Amino acid sequence: MLTTQDAADYLRLSKRTLERMRVDGLGPRFIRLRRSIRYRQSDLEQWLASQTVRSTSERKSLSKPTFEYPPHPLAAMFPMIEGKEKEELQASTISIR
Question: 62 lies in a domain?
Fold first, then answer.
């Protein structure tokens, strides 16, 4: 089991970069032991393998994972809303790609 500093050294990243990636959900899998974070070397190797691409255009969004927020809560409460009001309600649902 590797500490954050050991894992960062293994990946040739700064400790702070690895910490940021962990918070953003972009880095390798980790284990939380109470207040300590540990990495398995096998998880680091798997993560490195998952980052392999053939061209720079292959992976356009490395900064954030692709996900969508759930529908606006009012959409389920008022299914009878139609027209412009429905479009405005749908537009208030944030989608990140």
Answer: no
Q: Where in the sequence is the domain holding 83, given as residue range(s)? A: 67-96
pTM value surpassing 0.90: no
Residue 30: CB partners within 8 Å, gap ≥ 6? 7, 22, 37, 38, 39, 43
Least reliable range by pLDDT among 7-11, 38-42, 69-73: 69-73
30 within 8 A of 22, measured Cβ to Cβ: yes
- The reply to whether 41 and 15 lie within a common domain is yes
pLDDT at 68: 57
Using DSSP's 3-state secondary structure scheme, residue 4 falls into helix
9 and 45 within one domain: yes
H helices present in 1-97, as ranges? 4-11, 15-24, 41-50, 73-77, 83-91
